[in-house]
UniProtKB/TrEMBL annotation:
SUPFAM superfamilies assigned to the protein according to its UniProt record, in alphabetical order: FMN-dependent nitroreductase-like (SSF55469)
Domain (Nitroreductase): residue spans on this chain: 33-197
Stated family: Belongs to the nitroreductase family.
Keyword entries, A-Z: Oxidoreductase
The name this protein goes by in its record: Nitroreductase family protein
Species of the source: Cellvibrio fontiphilus
The organism's taxonomic lineage, starting at the top: Bacteria, Pseudomonadati, Pseudomonadota, Gammaproteobacteria, Cellvibrionales
Pfam families: Nitroreductase
Superkingdom classification of source: Bacteria
Keyword Oxidoreductase: yes
Length: 219
């Protein structure tokens, strides 16, 4: 149990006046405070593919190392695949209940083949990437993970803004799920994301956050 009151800390952390920050900041702050990792979804509520496409297109504005956009999204629509993935994710209820189940896949070697880099007159960049990542597969994977995590966060925020709730998930056997999805050695799952409407009887409490004083260091 953490030894602070979330509301007290939120007030203490956000004592800056409305005049000092833009209205846009407060809108975003509201969205950030509203987003929660939802464990129970309303299985009767579907999501239109066009809505999902709009969410994913917005999220693709995410930054990525060298703009390599390391992400691929697998939208798992097949009921059979969902059931298989549910079993590989400890039967967490979100997997079967959510309107959409996404696997965010990292393209770990995308630096070798990124056509858009080459098109952007990027021969020099390509050489630089070869020097940077050529003998450092772990660094290439780390960069893919960082970039895909940024993308994933934006998927959840865009979904929240569109009226959907979300849950990021890594509590699963990603190796087995990768096989189930037919991924090859250059691909790896960054995380699963479920999206949908929250179940009306979901009562999961808001998770607390540490106050600034416990994570901010000014040196
Ligand atoms: C990398 C990562 C993996 C997570 N895996 C799971 C998961 O497997 N199942 C789950 O219910 N929540 C999962 N979560 C959600 C966290 O439990 C949740 O974000 C955290 O408790 C804070 O709650 P909040 O997001 O509602 O504020 C994961 C979150 C992250 C960032």
């Amino acid at each position: 149990m953490l030894d602070f009151d979330i509301n007290k800390n939120l007030t203490a952390d956000s004592c800056i006046s409305k005049q000092e920050l833009s209205a846009q900041f407060f809108q975003l702050q509201h969205l950030l405070q509203q987003r929660r990792a939802i464990k129970y979804f309303d299985a009767a509520q579907a999501m239109d593919d066009r809505e999902l496409d709009a969410i994913l297109a917005s999220a693709s504005q995410a930054p990525s190392a060298f703009n390599l956009q390391h992400w691929q999204v697998v939208h798992i629509k097949s009921a059979q695949r969902r059931a298989e993935i549910s079993a590989l994710a400890y039967h967490q209820p979100q997997i079967q209940q959510a309107a959409a189940l996404l696997a965010i896949v990292m393209k770990k070697n995308v630096w070798q083949t990124a056509a858009h880099i080459a098109q952007a007159g990027g021969e020099k960049i390509q050489m630089h990437l070869q020097r940077l990542y050529g003998d450092k597969p772990q660094l290439a994977r780390d960069e893919a993970m960082r970039s895909c995590a940024m993308f994933s966060m934006l998927v959840m925020l865009a979904a929240e803004a569109a009226g959907y709730r979300s849950c990021p998930m890594s509590g699963a056997d990603f190796t087995a799920i990768g096989k189930c999805l037919g991924l090859d050695a250059t691909q790896e799952i960054c995380m699963l994301i479920t999206l949908g409407r929250e179940a009306s009887d979901n009562t999961i409490a808001r998770q607390q956050r540490l106050p600034l004083s416990q994570f901010l260091y000014r040196i």
